[in-house]
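Pipeline run #58 for the internal structure catalog. This entry was flagged by the ingest filter as a single-chain record with no existing model, so it goes straight to prediction. Upstream metadata was stripped on purpose; only the residue string is passed forward. Reviewer on rotation: M.T. Logging verbosity set to normal.
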Amino acid sequence: MRHSLPSILLLLCLLQAPPAAALLVGFHEQASNGANANRITVNVPAGTRTNDVMLAGVTLRSNATVTAPGGWTQVLNTLNTAGGNSLRTVLFYRVVIGAEPASYTWNLSASVRTAAIILPQVSPRPA
């Protein structure tokens, strides 16, 4: 059985959460960007706090490789070459452990059309 990354991360957050009558878990804010270059920069969404899990997705119209900024862990890297066109999607996550920079930059092995997004998942908090 296959599980989605957000579902797995949500389960991990809930397993580590302190007992409470109710917990608030969900996504807040988001930041995205598009470029036609050998790198793409995305701002850290407003409201991101310590212990939030940031999910980042980078999609490019090429089979070029993607190198994440420090502290990001790759969890998925797919390449679809249907119809003679290449489309790569790479997903990463990072747990916020303190102050974050204003943005993160992913480097690409070629200058290609690219889109990226960061979604911070709210860490479990008592309601």
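catalog note: The CA atoms of residues 7 and 13 lie 10 Å apart.
catalog note: Residues 5-25 have pLDDT under 50 and may be disordered.
status: ready for reviewer M.T.
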